[in-house]
Specification:
The chain has 120 residues and is an all-beta fold. It contains no helices and eleven strands. It starts with a strand and ends with a strand.
Length: 120
């Protein structure tokens, strides 16, 4: 079992910043990609950003230039720095990761989600 614990959500004014963190714990052999997804009310979940074990990143067009994803592989932790936040960024943000529990045994895990609200 792999547990993901997210933190850092909250209420922020438009133009403000927040930093989300997600720490993975459990019996983990290796982690490949870590990422963030979000789901706004009445909308489908969408990819926000991902980062591979090699450090390659991918961003949704809507957040490019404003959000930065990073990871600390030694701590099995992924971060999402969100700047210049807009009301349309309001959503529940969930962490996702995949890897191996042991050699040849893959896993995919989701966090419980953290609410980000951008409002004046």
């Amino acid at each position: 079992q792999v547990q993901l614990v997210e933190s850092g959500g909250g209420l922020v004014q438009p133009g403000g910043s927040l930093r989300l963190s997600c720490a993975a714990s459990g019996s983990i052999f290796s982690i490949n990609t870590m990422g963030w997804y979000r789901q706004a009310p009445g909308k489908q979940r969408e990819l926000v950003a991902t980062i591979t074990s090699g450090g390659s990143t991918n961003y949704a067009d809507s957040v490019k230039g404003r959000f930065t994803i990073s990871r600390n592989s030694a701590k099995n932790t992924v971060y999402l720095q969100m700047n210049s936040l807009k009301p349309e960024d309001t959503a529940v943000y969930s962490c996702n990761t995949n890897g191996q529990l042991r050699l040849g045994v893959p896993f995919i895990s989701w966090g419980q989600g953290t609410q980000v609200t951008v409002s004046s």
